[in-house]
Amino acid sequence: MPPTAPIAMGLMVAAGVVIAVQAPINAALYRGLGSPIAAATISFGVGFLLLLLCTILFGDAHTFTALPSLPSWLLVGGALGAFFVFSALWSVPVLGVLTVTGLVVLGQIGAALVLDHYGAFGLTVREISPTRLLSGVLLVAGVILSRL
């Protein structure tokens, strides 16, 4: 295991907590504004400003000059993030945080199995094993249990 792996693992656990907390906060913003699109826009706007400030403070603003030379499909990540924020803030009041989070992780595991299997976007190929497939099945069971 690389020496940075425990740090990466801790960051991802923290990111999981943040996703679980972000969804109901954004749902409350949606209720306060009365518009899910406006709530998602504000959420993304605040995130954009924070990231822009960090980019400038860390001295990385010059890296924006490489943007015109990159393939335009690389910008899809922002649209995918917007879809996630909108979907979560709209779904949390309907399903609850536990079920939404379980479904998000289920979607992530399903997509991750396929992306790893094909080595998409330059990833290392990792075959779909019975153990990896079982993780998705167990998550489906968890989502079902969360709705009982």
Automatic annotation (TrEMBL):
GO terms for cellular component: plasma membrane. The chain crosses the membrane at residues 37-58, 70-90, 96-115, 127-145. InterPro entries: YdcZ (IPR006750). Keywords: Membrane, Transmembrane, Transmembrane helix. Coiled coil: none annotated. Pfam families: DMT_YdcZ (PF04657). This is DMT family transporter. It comes from Roseovarius faecimaris. The lineage of its organism: Bacteria, Pseudomonadati, Pseudomonadota, Alphaproteobacteria, Rhodobacterales.
